[in-house]
Structures are given as structure tokens and as C-alpha cells.
């Protein structure tokens, strides 16, 4: 179970994403994808407040832990920012993998969600499409 109410979680997504110019609705769809609709079941557990699998590589690797839901969402948004632009985050850095992306050829190279294919998740050839499909289902009410 997530560590805050669903309403609060959505509010954090909108607050953090709007601040950085990231689409909050699609970032939320990414969280749904990464957490199995907040049922988890993979390596990440709800108490990590890690909604995007930051640092998780499979095989029992838990990935990053964040002190609360808002900081976990901020880390996700900052990680998306690292892929989508070379502009620095507006708030202090909490994404433990931001510098890794910044120092790679992936920094600022994903202008669209489908540009994340093979970058955010490897091989992840349809990663962006999966997120956009979830987003479309949200919009349609499915």
C-alpha cells in the first residue's frame, strides 16, 4: 500500500511535475506502469516511495529509497528531466541517478515519452508506448 492517500499522491505529481515542466498525468501513468498499478510485486516495495523503479535492475535489487512520497515523486520528475532537457532541476537534487544520466550520451536526448525507449528501461523497446497506453486508458476512463 502506498504511504499517502491516492489524492495526496496525485497532488504531489501535479505539484512536482508542473514545477519542472513535465506532464504530471503522463508521469503518473509511468508510476502506474512501474509499480504494477501500485500493487508492486517486483523488487521495489511501497515503503521505498520509489514510484519509477529508480536504481532497480532486477534480481532482487531494491533500488532507491526515499523518506516520503513527495521526495520519491520529485526524484522521478528529476530523472525524467535529466532525459528530456539539459536544464538543471529547480529544487535541490534528490534523484540519486541524475548525475549518471547527466554524464551520459542520454542527457537531454528524450523530447518525447517514446524517446525513452531503450534508455529508461533496457531493453525497453516499447517503454514509452506502454506508458502512453496507460495514459490513454486513464483519459478514456477504462
What does this structure look like?
- It is a single chain.
- The protein has 142 residues and is mainly alpha-helical.
- The chain has one domain: Orthogonal Bundle (Lysozyme), CATH 1.10.530.10.
- It contains 5 helices and no strands.
- Helix 1 crosses helix 2 and helix 2 crosses helix 5.
- The two termini are 22 Å apart.
- The mean pLDDT is 95.
Just give the CATH class.
Mainly Alpha
Q: How many angstroms does the end-to-end distance come to?
A: 22 Å
Please tell me how large the radius of gyration is: 14 Å
Give a count of the beta strands, DSSP E runs of length 2 or more.
0
Q: Order of SSEs, N→C?
A: HHHHH
CATH architecture: Orthogonal Bundle
The helix tally amounts to 5
Percent in helix: 40-55%
What CATH calls the topology is Lysozyme
Judging from the principal axes of the Cα atoms, what is the shape?
globular
* Poorly predicted parts: none
How many individual domains? 1
Mean pLDDT: 95
Amino acid at each position: 500500500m502506498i504511504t499517502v492517500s491516492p489524492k495526496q499522491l496525485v497532488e504531489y505529481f501535479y505539484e512536482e511535475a508542473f514545477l519542472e515542466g513535465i506532464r504530471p498525468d503522463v508521469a503518473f501513468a509511468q508510476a502506474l506502469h512501474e509499480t504494477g498499478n501500485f500493487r508492486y510485486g517486483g523488487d521495489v516495495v511501497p515503503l521505498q516511495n520509489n514510484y519509477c523503479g529508480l536504481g532497480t535492475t532486477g534480481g532482487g535489487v531494491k533500488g532507491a529509497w526515499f523518506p516520503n512520497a513527495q521526495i520519491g515523486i520529485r526524484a522521478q520528475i528529476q530523472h525524467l528531466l535529466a532525459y528530456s532537457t539539459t536544464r538543471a532541476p529547480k529544487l535541490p537534487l534528490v534523484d540519486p541517478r541524475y548525475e549518471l544520466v547527466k554524464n551520459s550520451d542520454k542527457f537531454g536526448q528524450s523530447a518525447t515519452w517514446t524517446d525513452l525507449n531503450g534508455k529508461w528501461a533496457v531493453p525497453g523497446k516499447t517503454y514509452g508506448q506502454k506508458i502512453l497506453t496507460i495514459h490513454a486508458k486513464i483519459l478514456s476512463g477504462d
